[in-house]
């Protein structure tokens, strides 16, 4: 400041913002501000702060839970059914909260050598078991595999809650995330009983469940590390109190036991399943000339995939082209709930560019909308996206030019009936409508 590089007014502005936020947060409302002899933490205020936001946390968990598999409508489970609940994350707030909860590597007992929270500091919340018991008090809980297998005979359905404990970056890095071997063995043992097994994954990332476990599960649900209220949200989805509407924000990789060999099953089969740890596969990866087995985008569950207890149809796609290069594209289509229950659909909007001077992903996400519809209800949806979303960096090696939107034809795409590993299956192609940038 003495050198004139920073003005007093600039420092005052920065300090004013920090102090304003502290006042808005109530940090100066503590007793010690008025009387230095008093404690600076008001126990009642602290208790209110811990409880604050639980309703919002519950709603966020409800909207994010993603149903990935539901063979023969195994879900929702009738509330009157005999339900067996098991798994290491069924009654664990540690796994449910994940890293950066209380401490960097999560709550105490997360299994790390450092950086866990102090013992006893667990925020109030609802585990999956507690959420299920609140809806169906007669459920059976088995803490261990042998108990669960023995009890499965008397159950109509088994809910196995698996996943990881808390972790954060660095300590939690893993090039091939998978369920621990003992959890995979537990799933295999439960599935061998012949009872339908619903797998609930409580984790911060997709996990390899074991190829046979994935095939044999009646249903698979991703609960994420959804916070203190995720347990209630999972239970509500399991029993149909809430209709799932979440979509995967990442790609869930395949978990093949071995890579398909060269020959009839491998040559040119770029979609063949890959073992965990294969080269990263992302939805918007660039097209290539590779033809090796499993070299393409071959997820178990695609980015943007998620099921509902109802069905939806889209139609009448229309596009209003941009008036200028720095303008927006208007899109409209109809969305109809074609099923028998109310539901919410997240509709993604993609753009395909048939030809371009530089490589671009086959399908670029440019927007999405979230719509709730009653059975048979239909609604016209209007969206727009800035043409700037389609800008590329011209050039090849140096790519030194500023981003620009290429002139030419583009195609708006709206998925119609996604498959687990493909939002654009040939059996149900997307709605398409072209527009031109001139």
Structure notes:
- This protein has three domains: 10-51, no CATH class; 55-238, Glycoside hydrolase family 3 C-terminal domain (Rossmann fold, 3-Layer(aba) Sandwich); 312-437, Sandwich (Immunoglobulin-like).
- The model has no long low-confidence stretch (mean pLDDT 92).
- The protein has helices spanning 8-24, 31-34, 43-51, 54-64, 93-97, 128-135, 145-151, 181-191, 211-216, 230-238; strands at 66-70, 83-86, 140-142, 157-163, 197-202, 219-222, 312-320, 328-337, 343-352, 364-373, 378-386, 408-414, 431-437.
- The strands form three sheets. A six-stranded mixed sheet has the order 1-6-5-4-2-3. A four-stranded antiparallel sheet has the order 10-9-12-13, with no helix packed on it. A three-stranded antiparallel sheet has the order 7-8-11, with no helix packed on it.
- It is globular and about 70 Å long.
- It contains ten helices and 13 strands.
- Helix 4 crosses helix 10 and helix 6 packs across helix 10.
- By secondary structure, it is an alpha/beta fold.
- Helix 9 links the parallel strand 5 (197-202) and strand 6.
- The protein starts with 7 loop residues before the first helix and ends with a strand.
């Amino acid at each position: 400041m003495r050198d004139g590089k920073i003005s007093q007014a600039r420092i005052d502005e920065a300090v004013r913002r920090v102090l304003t936020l502290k006042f808005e947060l109530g940090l100066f409302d503590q007793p010690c501000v008025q009387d230095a002899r008093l404690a600076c933490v008001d126990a009642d205020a602290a208790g209110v702060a811990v409880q604050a936001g639980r309703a919002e946390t519950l709603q966020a968990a409800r909207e994010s839970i993603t149903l990935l598999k539901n063979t023969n409508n195994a879900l929702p489970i009738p509330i009157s059914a005999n339900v067996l609940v098991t798994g290491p994350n069924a009654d664990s707030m540690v796994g449910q909260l994940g890293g950066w909860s209380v401490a960097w590597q999560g709550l105490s007992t997360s299994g790390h050598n450092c950086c866990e929270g102090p013992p006893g500091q667990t925020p109030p919340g609802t585990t999956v078991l507690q959420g299920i018991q609140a809806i169906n008090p007669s459920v059976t809980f088995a803490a261990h595999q042998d108990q669960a297998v023995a009890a499965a005979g008397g159950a109509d359905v088994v809910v196995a809650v698996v996943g990881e404990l808390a972790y954060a970056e660095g300590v939690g890095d893993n090039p091939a995330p998978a369920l621990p071997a003992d959890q995979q063995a537990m799933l295999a043992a439960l599935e061998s009983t012949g009872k339908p097994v619903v797998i609930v994954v409580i984790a911060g990332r997709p996990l390899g469940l074991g190829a046979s476990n994935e095939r044999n599960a009646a249903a698979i649900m991703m609960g994420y590390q959804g916070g203190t209220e995720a347990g209630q949200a999972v239970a509500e989805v399991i029993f149909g109190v809430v209709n799932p509407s979440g979509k995967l924000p990442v790609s869930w990789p395949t978990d093949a036991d071995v890579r398909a060999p060269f020959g009839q099953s491998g040559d040119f089969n770029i979609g063949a399943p890959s073992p965990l740890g294969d080269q990263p596969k992302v939805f918007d990866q660039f097209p290539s000339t590779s033809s090796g087995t499993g070299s393409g985008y071959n997820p178990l569950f695609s980015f943007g995939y998620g099921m509902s207890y109802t069905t939806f149809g889209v139609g009448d796609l229309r596009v209003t082209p941009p008036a200028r290069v720095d303008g927006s594209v208007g899109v409209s289509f109809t969305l109809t709930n074609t099923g028998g229950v109310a539901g919410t659909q997240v509709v993604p909007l993609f753009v395909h560019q048939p030809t371009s001077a530089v490589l671009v992903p086959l399908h670029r996400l440019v927007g999405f909308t979230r719509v709730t519809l009653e059975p048979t209800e239909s609604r016209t949806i209007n969206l727009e996206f800035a043409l700037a979303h389609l800008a590329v960096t011209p050039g090849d090696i140096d790519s030194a030019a500023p981003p620009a939107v290429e002139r030419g034809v583009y195609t708006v795409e709206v998925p119609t009936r996604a498959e687990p590993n493909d939002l654009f299956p040939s059996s149900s192609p997307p709605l398409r409508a072209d527009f031109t940038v001139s």
